[in-house]
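Quick one, tokens below:
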């Protein structure tokens, strides 16, 4: 009976997908929703393909999952991933539907799944991944995720005992998950930019979990990421099995030490959080058995997905459209750190708001007070454009961050903001949320049209 119900769910799910695609819809969640409604134990009933890789954590899940899927594909594996879909149970169920044929037989070699950390309890115990990467655990939206310890306890309870873990040794929050499981750690050695005391507004892991003494750091990268030790009881961060020993931005490459041998790989993206994502993918797939040559070759031709990072030219201005995740103060701080420490005369256009949520609920705007906007207080950042319905909240936040009022352009209409902003700038960072991506693409089009003409007029005068 259970199998019959499963097959009905599978066929309905496949039919729903075909129909939605015919109507030119994305079809990332609904086919999975159909499957789970008809067959609540769809995850357990689905026959798994030979290799199942999952990626979870607060930040970096999408980028890491996409890299893992692309690297496996480059190595000759047939892969299904939820890269365009949702990372909650319905999106994962849709991916499972794609991974089997109409008689339920696996038709791919591997599944590469992004799994939402809170929804992991509904997914991991039934999917039984062979591997699970946990990128990190930070404070996230208070409404959705409460606090990092709450998410830690969910993962610690529901990760299957036989799953091999790939953990970030520099994140004390997530590296302590499931100590009974087999695991490998990745870590980045001390960098010239590291400090020994936290400069961020948020540090989610500052006290020794053994004796409650304040932790000290051999080096601290950002927030609680770094190598910590307890001066009283000897508790300390784990050592990396895959250690990034050299980060060479000029040569565009990283060196990874594993089992006493160093290997060199191209850097996919300059932002340090993306270097962590790349290192996680390298650690996972090296442990799985892919060769350095295969990984290095595939990474050489890879970029971060365009919905997360895209560079174009608007006249003489380099336009960088990138994500600054709303309601996620750590992720947003990473973007501010990245933009703040880039070089050249630049402007920053911020269109991150939560109007989409205010239709039926609301998020406490206080999260913007946890974001390190202070990183934007740089002499070579010429203008900060605050656009969209939350622009006045941001204006107050920027002033408190010490940014001079004359650098701020405050405009509720994103398109009008393009008209009034300064166009004579080397680089422009267009920062958007997941929910404002489509709008950001329209604003980007306007910038691409308006900037070159304005610069030509300027040059002619
Ligand atoms: Zn201690």
């Amino acid at each position: 009976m259970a199998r019959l119900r499963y097959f009905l769910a599978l066929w309905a799910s496949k039919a729903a997908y075909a129909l939605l695609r015919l109507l030119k819809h994305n079809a990332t969640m609904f086919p999975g929703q159909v499957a789970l409604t008809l067959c609540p134990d769809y995850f357990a009933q689905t026959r798994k393909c030979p290799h199942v890789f999952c990626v979870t954590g607060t930040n970096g899940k999408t980028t890491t999952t996409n890299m893992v899927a692309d690297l496996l594909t480059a190595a000759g594996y047939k892969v299904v991933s939820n890269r365009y879909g949702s990372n909650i149970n319905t999106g994962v169920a849709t991916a499972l539907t794609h991974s089997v044929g109409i008689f339920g037989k696996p038709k791919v070699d591997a599944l590469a799944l992004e799994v939402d950390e809170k929804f992991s309890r509904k997914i991991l115990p039934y999917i039984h991944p062979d591997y699970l990467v946990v990128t990190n655990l930070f404070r996230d939206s208070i409404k959705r995720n409460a606090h990092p310890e709450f998410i830690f306890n969910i993962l610690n309870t529901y990760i299957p005992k036989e799953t091999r873990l790939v953990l970030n040794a520099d994140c004390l929050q997530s590296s302590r998950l499931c100590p009974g499981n087999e695991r490998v750690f990745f870590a980045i050695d001390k960098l010239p930019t590291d400090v020994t005391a936290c400069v961020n507004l948020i540090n989610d892991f500052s006290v020794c979990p053994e004796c409650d003494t304040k932790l000290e750091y051999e080096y601290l990268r950002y927030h609680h990421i770094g190598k910590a030790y307890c001066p009283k009881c000897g508790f300390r961060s784990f050592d990396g099995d895959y250690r990034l020993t050299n980060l060479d931005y000029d040569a565009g490459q990283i060196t990874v030490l594993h089992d006493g041998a160093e290997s060199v790989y191209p850097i996919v993206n300059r932002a340090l959080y993306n270097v962590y994502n790349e290192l996680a993918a390298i650690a996972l797939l090296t442990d799985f058995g892919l060769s350095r040559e295969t990984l290095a070759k595939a990474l050489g031709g890879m970029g971060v997905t365009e919905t997360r990072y895209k560079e174009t030219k608007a006249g003489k201005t380099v336009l960088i459209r990138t994500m600054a995740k709303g309601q996620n103060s750590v992720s947003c701080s990473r973007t501010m750190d990245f933009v703040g420490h880039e070089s050249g005369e630049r402007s920053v256009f911020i269109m991150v708001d939560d109007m989409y949520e205010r239709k039926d609920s609301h998020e406490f705007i206080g999260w913007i007070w946890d974001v390190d906007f202070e990183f934007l207080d740089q002499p070579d950042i010429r203008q900060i454009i605050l656009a969209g319905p939350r622009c006045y909240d941001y204006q107050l936040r920027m002033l408190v961050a010490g940014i001079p009022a004359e650098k701020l352009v405050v405009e509720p209409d994103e398109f009008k903001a393009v008209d009034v902003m300064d166009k004579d700038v080397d680089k422009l960072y267009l920062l958007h949320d997941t929910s404002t991506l489509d709008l950001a693409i329209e604003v980007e089009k306007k910038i691409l049209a308006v900037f070159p003409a304005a610069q030509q007029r300027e040059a002619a005068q």
